[in-house]
Structures are given as C-alpha cells and as structure tokens.
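Q: Predict the assembly, please.
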Amino acid sequence: MSVYQTLWFFLVGVLLTVFAILDGFDLGVGFWHLWTNKDEDRRLLFRSVGPFWDGNEVWLLTGGGALFAAFPPVYATVFSGFYMAMMLVIIALILRAVSGEFRSAEESATWRKIWDVCFSLGSILAALLFGVALGNILRGIPMDADGNYTGTFLTLLNPYALLIGVLGLAMLAFHGAIFITMKASNDLEPRAHGWATRSGIVYIVLYIAAVAATIAGQKHLLENYNRLPILWLIPIVALCFIIGAVFYLKRGRKGMAFASSSFSIAGMMSLAGAGLFPRLVPALQKPDLSLTAWNSSSSELTLRTMLILALIGVPVVAAYTIWVYRIFRGKMDISLEDEHY
Amino acid sequence: MDPVLLARIQFAVTVGFHFIFPPITIGMAWLIFYFMTRYLKTGDEEYGTQARFWLRPFAVTFVVGVATGITMEFQFGTNWAAYSRFVGDIFGAPLAAEGLLAFFLESTFMGVLLFGWKKVSKRVLWLSSLLVAVGSTLSAFWIIVANSWMQTPAGYRIVDGKAELTDFWAAVFNPSTLQRYIHTIDACLITGAFFMMGVSAWYLLKGKHVEFARKSFKVSLVAGFITAALQLPLGHWHAVQVAHTQPEKLAAFEGLFETQKRAPILIFGIPDAERRETLAAVGMPAGLSILIDMDPEYEVMGLNDVPRQDWPPLKLTFFSFHLMFILGMYFIGITALGIFLMWRKKLFDNRLYMMLAFVFLPLPLIANELGWIAAEVGRQPWIVYKVPGMRTAEAVSITVSASEILASLVMFSVIYALLGVLWVHLLRKVVIKGPPAHESAAGKEVAS
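A: Predicted assembly structure:
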C-alpha cells in the first residue's frame, strides 16, 4: 500500500511539475505581454502560445483530477480552504483563456487593449497565486482535526507565502522570456533577451532568499534534508540550472537555456516535494493533524487502477505532445495573414 | 442566506452555462471531420473551405467551453468538500481519466487544426480533425461516467463513512452510464447539426454564399435528421433504465402519484405535491406501462410509495422533462420535413423553412439544458442517489461561508453573462464575415 501512496505522491508531483514547466512558459509570455506595445508584437506573442496553451493547461486539470482521485481529503481541504484564492485563480484562467480568440475577432485598438490586459493580468495573477498557494502548503495551514481549514483569506497572505509567490512569478517570467527569444524574429528578440537576463537575476536573488527563509523559519521542511543529507544536492543543482539558463542565454543557445530553465522549475518542485514528503499539507503548529500520503490516500484498488491509467496515458500524451511541439518549433512568421489570431 | 442553496445555485449556474458549449463543439467536430474526410478523398477545395469556415465558430465556442470547464474541475473541492472526501475514492478517477485519455487529445490537436494549415500536410490536418472529434467525444464519456455514478452508484462499498471502490469497471459502467452517454452524445450531434443548419439558412435567406450554404445545409440536414430520429429509441432506452434504477425520478417525470398497473403517459399536466395529484392531466392510459415493459399490466411505482422527504422537486422535473421531449419531437418533425422538401427539390425555395431553421437554431441548446435539469433535479434530494450521508445538503464545504459563496456567485454571474454576450457577438461577426474565398490547396505543398 505504502508503495502506491509513495508513487502517487510522486506522480501528482510530476503532473504538477510538467504543468509548471509547460503552462509556465505561456503564463510567462503573458507576464511580458504588456511590455510590448506594437500590435504586431502582441499578435506574435499570442500566436507563439496559440497552439499550446490549452494542452498545457490540461496538465493542471489532470493534476487536479489526480489529486482528487489519489488524495481526496487534500483536494477537499485545500480547495475549500483557499476558497477565495481559488475563485480568483479560476477567473484569471478564464479571462486569459478566451483573450487570444476574442482579441483577434475585432480590429479596434480599444478592444484589443482590453484583451491584452486580460491576458497579461490573468497570467500574472494565476502565476502569483499558484506560488502563494504552494508557499502556504509548504509553511503549513491552520486546520482542525477534521481536516477543515481554520484560517481566513488574509492568513494566506503571510510573508513566507508571498515570497514563494513572487519567486514563482519571477521563475515563470524568466521561463517565458526565454521562450519568446526562441519565437520572435524581429526587434522583439533582443528585447526579450534583456527581459530574460533581468528576470533571471531576480529569480536567482529570490531563490536564495527563499532558501534562506526556509532554513531560518520552516524547520519542519528540513527534517528530510537532515535525515538524508544527500538531498541538499537538490537546491544546489536547481541553482546550477538557473545559472546555466542565464549562461546559455548569454551564449545565444536559446534551446539549451529553455531546457535549463525547465529543469530549474523541476528543481524547485523537487525541492518542495522532498521537504514535504510524506506530508501533502502540513498542519500549522499541529504536526499530528497533517494530511500525509499515508493518512489521506484513496484505497489501494483506486491507486492501483489509476496507476495503470497513468502508465498507459502519460507516455501516449507525452509522445503526441512532443510531436505537436515539433510541428510548431522555430521562429514565428507574423506575415502569414492566414494564421489563426 | 443558506450556504447550501447558494452553493447549489452556483453549481447550477456554472454547469448550466458550461453545458451550452461542449454539445455544439462535439457535434460540429464530427461535421468538420466529415468535410475534412471529403476534402482528403476528393481534393475538392469546396470541402476544404467548408472545414475552414466551420472551424471559426467552432474555435470561438471551443474556447468558451474550455474556459468555463476549468471551474468545474475545481468546484467539487471548493464548494463540495464533504462530497469530495466522501466519494473521492471513486469520483476523482474519471476526472483524471478525462484529462489523461481525452482532453489532452482534444486540446493538443485543436492546436494543430487551428494553427497548422500552413505547416502540416492535408493528411495530418485530417487526422487532427478526427482526433479532436474523438477526444471531445471521449471527454464527454468520462464526465458522464462521473455523473452517472452519482445517479446510479455501483462498484463500491461504504467503509468508515466513505465510499470505497470495489470494482472499477462496475463503477465506470454503472447501470446508467451507457444509456446516458449515448443519449447525450446524440443530443450533441443534433446540436451541431442544427447549429450548422441555422447558420447556413441565414446565408440562404440573405442570398449570400449560396453555393456554400446549400452544401452545408444539405449535409447538416441529413445529419440532423438521422441523429434526431435516433434519439427516439435512444431516449426511450434511457427512460426505461431510469424506470428500473431510479423509479422516484421516473414518477416525477410523469407526475405519477399512485402506484399502478396501466400507468398513463402524460402529454400535459401540472403535478401538485400538496394535493398529491397531477392536475389537468392529458395523456394515454397504460402508455407508461407499455413503454417500460411492453405490457399494460406492468406496475409502475408512484410517489405515494416514496417517503415525502425523498421526493425530487416535482414541477421543475416534470416540465423540463416534458419540454425536452416536445423539442425532441420537433427536431424529428422539422428535419423529416426538410428531407422531404429536399427530395421534392423544393427545399431551397422555401423561405419559411429557412426562417424556421435559422430562428430555432438555439432550440437544441435549450433541449440539452432541459434534459440536464430533468436528470439532476430529478436526482434530488440526493447528491449520490440513495447513499446514506450523501444528501445534497450534507455535501457542502463547511468552511466556506455564505457571503463567500455569494461573492463568487456574483463574480461568476457577471463574467459568464459577459462571456455569453461576447460569444454571441463574435459568432455573429464570424458568420457575417462568411466563408473564405477559395484558396489554393492548404498543406505543405503550397507553403513551400
């Protein structure tokens, strides 16, 4: 049983990590969207994520579904506990989802500006809130013995969670900027290069601050690390990937930079996962009440069935996703009038 | 205000609004696939133009469907935490499966279909149109599995106040899954066909893009007729299943209070829960018994044999079911008439027919909503039918206050109303703009 519980802890983490990497770059593109001002550039940004964003978001829906299926109490506690934050995430995701399609339907500058703002603010808000949510889970949330959240919306806005929130935002902004350098061919490319360098530095600074804040204030996250010191390699490797991404970018090797920043995101998620395990949601100040992979999982039959589904489904999805990404690889050609958007 | 009521209203608003869109896209996806298939086989640009044009309203509708679908994935956790804890062992799996086995397929190849015309070959475009159609149809399957389990739960046992899976396939193919799924998919196909007929009729009325619109009208009329006619046996199959697995719901559909042999089927009536009778009933004696079992002596259970607190709301269930039925009959009648006119070569001269096809374009959407209301309101007061501890009122998130739900409900209502208005506006624009002029063949050979 504990094998399945461990596997599902890991698998939910994998699904959310792939979500962070893939939807991460289109959220990151949204972050920079308002930094441009020519319609041509903005269309290019929309087109660069056009074929991908929807598929990318499915990783979130699948991750959410997997969390529901594998650890129902966690899904119930977190989603109901973070109620207003979740509602804001949903609204943000809805507005950015429709913005590309809606924007292209009208020529009017005001109309287009509205959807530009929706796309950008929606992306920023979603990216920020995902980080804040993760920060709160890392820190632990106040809850009672029935697993009900006992805090308020304001409880969620504590300094540690906000730090993780802005770290996540910087990470995705960096990731998105690198993606833009791969797609843009006109004068947008050097600009995106500049954005990537600057956000890369912010990313590194916030990352070091977050690690320091965790070591100083979140002792419960260090237990696994102290028990198994080799885990300390994770934060070091993660830092290497961030620096590597900045370095590759400087050398003009954008594909490698993107890969490296993707690995840095995976590093962040591993860092969090290694600190939490086996807890999924630590209870603030009452460690006994924490929701863990052992006390919050579904039955063995469900975990086993889901594992079979995942073992069949994920490789197939990965295969055709890679195929479609290859179809749309390379620079965008904005002159193609015929393209969607 | 009562948080349970607010949570229910929010759920109804968000699902009800979402449910406008997927039926259109599921139905249209297969029609677009048809055009893509003809295009691939014949190489005739006319078919390519059809596919490309219909992709536009399809894309606008698809994106609103996707956007409003996000809400659904989260809402079980946010507003129905007690439910989520109780049924998570069973209910989460179909949602995850929907993502993994269906929604990825649909979303990924939707990207190719919308953005790939200058990048991939005709064959890949054709394949993408197939995979979008298959993906969206499979998506519906897993969602219907989850919903059907709430209606007719199977493959589980209760352990420590929670449902625990005992047999995955029994839960997936619970007693109402297949009937509900096939009935719903056929409704989607009808919706797609009527959508295409309606838009084509508008062009024909305006005398615009006439050749184009005649072709799409013919194709969608034939598709509409076949699927509408099929709905008669399929709906019947589903209703018989309801009679056997959820007799209270059937009694509410038909306003039946006395358990009786030779139970009548009603065309009209006003069920009155207080007086325990259906007023102004007009119907066929023994009709219900015959429909369920081919035997007038078949005994149908009435609501009087059901404890009062287990009754679903009667009027809403009764009227939505009957209105849906009447609309279904209209769909058969109007398409049959169209086929007849087409056969007599009088279809395209008939402005009245075109007017009907255009004005009544939204009727399948209304029928879909009514069917959903009949099914879900008819399930009340249970959230999971007849499972102790799973009455709807017991299933909400206790940590979420009424004022929070009210705030999110207002937020959803405003944004959805806006989305709805914009969706109609953009569809109008797409339709007014019309199909693209014939272009040289799509695919790689032209791009290079």
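Strands of chain A lie at 279-281, 291-292. DSSP finds twelve helices and two strands in chain A.
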